[in-house]
Amino acid sequence: MMKKARIRFLIPRLGAAVCSLVCIAGIVAGCEDRSAKPELEAASPKLVVATKKSAAEINSESRQVVFEDVVQKVNLTHIWPQQPRPMRTNEAFGCGCAAFDFDGDGWQDILLVADPHPVLYRNLEGVKFRDVTESMGLIRTGTDDWTGCAVGDYDGDGWMDLLLTGLHRLALYRNLAGQRFEETTVLAGLDPGNHNHWGASAAFMDLDRDGWLDLVVVNYVVFGPESKQYCEMRPGVKSGCPPKEYLPDKGEIWHNTGRGGFELVPHEQGMESTNGPGLVLAFADLDDDGRMDFYIGNDGENADLLHNLGGMNFANHGVSSGLAFGRELSAMAAMGADWGDFDRDGRLDLAVSNFDWFGFALFRNQGSSSFTDVTAPTGVERITLSRLGFGTNWMDFDNDGWPDLAFVNGHVYENASEIDSRSTYRQPILLLRNLKGKKFIDLVPNLSSDVGRLMVGRGSATLDFDNDGRLDLIVVDYEGPVCLLQNRSQTNNHWLKLDLRGAAPNRFAYGARAVGKSAEQVWISEVSPASSYLSSKDPRIHWGLGSCGKLETLTIRWPSGREQVLRDVVADQILTVLEPDSPSSD
Ligand SMILES: [Ca+2]
Ligand SMILES: [Ca+2]
Ligand SMILES: [Ca+2]
Ligand SMILES: [Ca+2]
Fold first, then answer.
1. Could you list which residues have their CB under 5 Å from ion ligand 4?
2. Relative to the alpha carbon of 403, which ligand is closest?
């Protein structure tokens, strides 16, 4: 029995931007062959032909994609200061950023991790941002070495809460109805000193399916004032030390008690089996059992894949899954990671960034928790070889349905060129266009110079800050101004954005899976904002639909296990779907 879905359409709130795209879309029904359709010309792509491809080829591949750094226009004023020279590892580590809607007005706000405190910008309807750090209670004094951030509604009150990680620091903030953040670290059973761990990426996710968001914090190495501070990678060239100089640290899993706090899950239930030094984690339900599994990227050691066995027990399938190593079975320096179905076979694949001269990695999901390294055949190895990558995000630049890939880059040694003459400290980002799941090409050489500026790239997060159906990207330049790449691509392609709202206490439906189908095409995403490096993205699911004006079916598997099927879902809207309150809704 089909129960009526409780759906709200947000379009009337979103103003002219969305309306104009809807108007461009016109009247459509399902997917048609759009090969004969005229394409709109891009606004002002500055074409510089820098590869062996013909100018015509480059032109046709990149003309739709236009990004512009709009920080000045929208009043994002933060600048990260220059770090000391020589630079120690903790000074090169960098920081993350987050996109989330802290005040529940439908517009994604931006948080930048910084010292001595983060900077929070309220999004004023996609036009401007206003610094609300002080009025929201996030000012701190005398503390530095903040690194990452995680976002999630840990107390189930419908407001997004915030966690900050750092070197021997941790801070949990409860969101008081979008009016103020109140620090609850100690109250929630967490340690403001992070038990002397060097915290890196962290994430909220309901791991035992009780509805309450648990917390995973990935830790880096054992490091303190007594540790070796500087190394000479070449005689006379002083820099921070590689992780091998220190003991690797392991992460922690914290179970949400449902009574306002967390308790540590014993290490032998999972984290004991991981390798460290941890940098990043990313969730996906790989065996389809409704329990979220997660990848942990380590620095110079095998990566881990924690398979969720239920009851807060985990088994490490890193090696058997094929995700533990990069090229030539060597461990990666896995800084950034993100799941996305690049070949559109209905299975989530994994992209991972890496140190320079090794190539990043793209792992194709073969099913049964088994992965194949397709970095070389897809062209990703050649494109990424000279880069040292951090932030990693799947994002469909042009809404053609094929998830594209953004990598944010910058070396860890400010004197990198003195250590290896081929290396550079500041590097441009990579915007890799996905050519139908077979090849990737970098569009940055063909985009304007503000997009390809050299930076000390670290964290990054996708978001649609202006709610126009085109995914934008926020980027940390750790020694420079924040970068917000507004997507101004001109295309006739359709899109759909899903804002899933689960039953309490997991009100933002973390761990939900959405599968869209139309004719032979499939789209799959899971609600899991933790990704990239030290960062948290816009939690709404965004799909480019190409020529599809509607989805024949949209199946949502809620974290509770309920499945809901919506039919004939029209494109070009931000669709809020509320979890039905009775079981077996379809
Ligand atoms: Ca907001
Ligand atoms: Ca909350
Ligand atoms: Ca796939
Ligand atoms: Ca946008």
1. 464, 466, 468, 470, 472, 487
2. 3
Pairing of strands 573-578, 494-501: parallel
Query: Measured in angstroms, how far is the CA atom of residue 549 from the centroid of ligand 3?
Result: 23
- Cα distance between residue 161 and residue 491, in whole Å: 36
Closest ligand, as measured to the CA of 125: 1
| Edge-first strand listing for the sheet containing 550-557 | 521-526, 513-518, 550-557, 563-570
Which ligand places an atom closest to the C-alpha of 394?
3
CA distance 278 to 250: 7
- Residue 357: count of CB within 10 angstroms of its CB: 12
What is the Å distance from ligand 1's center to 521 Cα? 33
How far, in Å, from the CA of 151 to the mean position of ligand 2?
10
Distance of CA 152 from the midpoint of ligand 1 (Å): 15
Closest CA to 517 of 569, 558, 482: 569
Q: Which helix (H) or strand (E) holds 453?
A: none
| Residues whose Cβ atom is located within 5 A of ion ligand 1 | 101, 103, 105, 107, 109
Q: Are strands 109-112 and 293-298 parallel, antiparallel or unpaired?
A: unpaired
pLDDT of 499: 98
What is the pLDDT at residue 581? 83
Q: In this structure, what token pair is assigned to residue 185?
A: 């670290």
Cα-to-centroid distance, 344 and ligand 3 (Å):
5
Kindly give the distance from the C-alpha atom of residue 260 to the centroid of ligand 2, in angstroms, as a whole number.
10
DSSP-based three-state secondary structure for 244: helix
Give me ligand 1 centre to Cα 106, in Å: 6
CA dist., res. 367 & res. 346, Å (int):
10
For residue 219, the one-letter residue type is: N
In this structure, which ligand is nearest to the CA of 70? 4
Contact 247, 300 (CB under 8 A): no
Provide block-wise average pLDDT over 10 residues at a time, the chain (586 residues): 39 34 39 42 32 50 84 98 97 98 98 98 98 98 95 98 98 98 98 97 98 98 97 95 97 98 97 98 97 98 98 98 94 98 98 97 96 98 98 98 98 96 97 98 96 98 98 98 97 97 98 97 98 97 98 98 97 98 55
Contact 445, 48 (CB under 8 A): yes
User: CA-CA distance, 128 to 107, in Å (whole number)?
Assistant: 11
* Cα–ligand 3 centroid distance for 436 (angstroms): 12
Ligand nearest to the CA of 367: 3
- 532 burial (CB, 10 Å; 0-12 / 13-18 / 19+) is buried
